Amino acid sequence: MQTGEDSREMSDIDELVPPNRTLMGPGPSDVHPRVLRAMSTPLVGHLDPSFVEIMDEVQELLRYTFRTDNQWTIPVSGTGSAAMEAAIGNVVEPGETMLVPTNGYFGGRMASMARRAGGEVVEVDAPWGEPLDPDDVADALAEYDPDVFGFVHAETSTGVLQPDVSELTAAAHDHDALVIADTVTSIGGVELRVDEWGIDVAYAGPQKCLSCPPGASPLTLSDEAMEKVLSREEEPRSWYLDLSLLEGYWGDDRSYHHTAPITNVYAIREALRLVAEEGIENRWARHERLAGALKAGVEAMGLEMNAPDEYWLPSLNAVRVPDGIDDGEVCAELLERYDLEVASGLGDLDGEIFRIGCMGYSARPKNVVYVVTALGDVLEDMGADVDPGRGVTATRRALEG
């Protein structure tokens, strides 16, 4: 039982006032003001006719953004990892084989989820910081004949964008394998064409290039993938993420399954409306132009990118940490001095790179100049061999050009 003294202590908790950060890390990105306004609108019930209409609109907007005609396209109730688990946990059946990449942190997460689903995991090898080689994928497919092939389109841990997607999917389909793509850091930020590229299942997160708070996460499945889900002999291990049950809520019947995160659905609807208003190809071009200015600035000041130009990921810029510099101290100083968030490396690249996002509403000229200015200032103060002035000048020239 709560005592009077406990009650007084609870009443001492102040009103929530988070710091006003500029979010230029690997996610979340800054949320667009229109998305924040949408989240403040009144709730309705999750089976209210008006909300059902909103659900239909969100599905259409997701199809546009994924570049797909897939009927089964929904926002999963949860973060991007929930969409990832829904994809893998429903498509991979116990005893089946899934081929996963080793070239980044999130390929490892694919492997972990496939094992938890009862699958047998085999790997196609590539070093961290490099994309998958189509020939290596073809060799692994021939050797293991997997039921499912997964790859990461935009690897957040390395700053690498996977080219040759159609080549990978065609090789997988030659072996009758379904293809699952991690598009968390690519959707709405870099070119992504689910249908044209032959991707069977794609999952994503809303908090990166869509500039939407996490909570309702994009997922799309082809008819072939959904047929496999609905014909499973054994139920998926997750009831909450069982797509055969969610079909009843997001399909034609709109039958109760769970209480949807209504405010998050409002948010992703508005975020996707912004995508449609800008135009998806214009949005891809904006990210490339602004991230290109960021890249020009960090290179001009004397820093190196982790990924070669041909694999550079505009939405997540992996920058090598200069010799003798502690990346954690730099990130902490940027947060303290500039209210600016960038991130350190993960896994094999822990301590070796900064991860600087250029995503969604954060991908604006003033933010790009700000992050180059702040990073150069902090690195120079810590004794790194950099020229911040040259970096800022290069950034501005790239933006003007």
From TrEMBL:
Keyword flag Transferase: yes
A GO molecular function annotation here is: L-serine-pyruvate transaminase activity
Q: Which domain of life is it from?
A: Archaea
Q: Which InterPro entries match?
A: Aminotrans_V_dom, PyrdxlP-dep_Trfase, PyrdxlP-dep_Trfase_major, PyrdxlP-dep_Trfase_small, SP_NH2Trfase/AEP_transaminase
User: Per the database record, which ranges form the Aminotransferase class V domain?
Assistant: 45-345
Give the Pfam families listed for this entry.
Aminotran_5
Name the residue ranges with Basic and acidic residues bias: 1-11
**GO BP terms:** glycine biosynthetic process, by transamination of glyoxylate
> Is Translocase among this UniProt entry's keywords?
no
What does the record give as cofactor? pyridoxal 5'-phosphate
Region of interest: Disordered? 1-28
List keywords of the entry alphabetically: Aminotransferase, Pyridoxal phosphate, Transferase
Family, according to the entry, reads as follows: Belongs to the class-V pyridoxal-phosphate-dependent aminotransferase family.
What name has this protein been given in UniProt? Answer: Alanine--glyoxylate aminotransferase family protein
Q: Which organism is it from?
A: Natrialba swarupiae
